[in-house]
Amino acid sequence: MNALHKAMTIAGSDTSGGAGMAADLKTFEELNVYGMTALTVIVAQNPHNAWDHEIFPIELKVVEKQLETILAGIGIDAMKTGMLGSAELVELVARTIDRFKLHNVVIDPVMVCKGIDTIMVPDAAAAIKQLLIQRADVITPNTLEAAYLAGMPQVKTLEDIKEAAGRIKELGARYVVIKGGERMENDEAIDVLYDGKEFTEMAEKKIYPSYNHGAGCTYSAAITAGLANGLDVREAVFQAKKFITAALRHSFVLNKYSGCTNHTAFRRYGQ
Ligand code: PXL
Question: pTM of the predicted model, to two decimals?
Fold first, then answer.
């Protein structure tokens, strides 16, 4: 049996290679999944101006063509979204999920980038809340995105995370994973998985120093790969937590502005 299970990412290209489509494809490969991409934006960083992120969108009809190639032409076992960049594109993604009756849908509601703590494209964020939460088998906000989706002023503590997970679940996601990460007010990185009945806490000691560019993309890609390979959501999330913890433990510096997770670490060094 040579055929691999297949996953699609609808995401942007991070030219620096740590996040976005690059992180997704590397993670799929590490977890033995065949990856395909519908590219939404190209992000370039400015080496002469503090690594400023510039975003260049791909034309909507070009994204549509890519989706057609993958979904009408090949087929997938699971999918994820990353940076979508506009409300029109979020609408296209919602229509596409319905048209092809896609399942194993992981929504990573990318609204902020490392170092930027305000919502990048408010219209796209509103569309994600309105159209994609209800279509998500798993949604994976960080604490800033969770606060936005849940309509809370902030999410800082474990109690806040649980409150936000409950509210996001009510908006229609099948499973909610909130990534406590470095923004939490204690010395553990606690993620919470909520299925509507039970809160499962996944805690790891915070890792210092850790270079976490691309961590969110990598985590949601690992969940997607697990689902593509037939794991159930809980198993896929637990495996992804191990994958991202290893990737952070072996993360490395890119330059004075940025450092990224090590996508090979789970395979090479285990947990
Ligand atoms: O980490 C968020 C993210 C997602 N997608 C792309 C990015 C980034 C952050 O830089 O460039 C394409």
Answer: 0.98
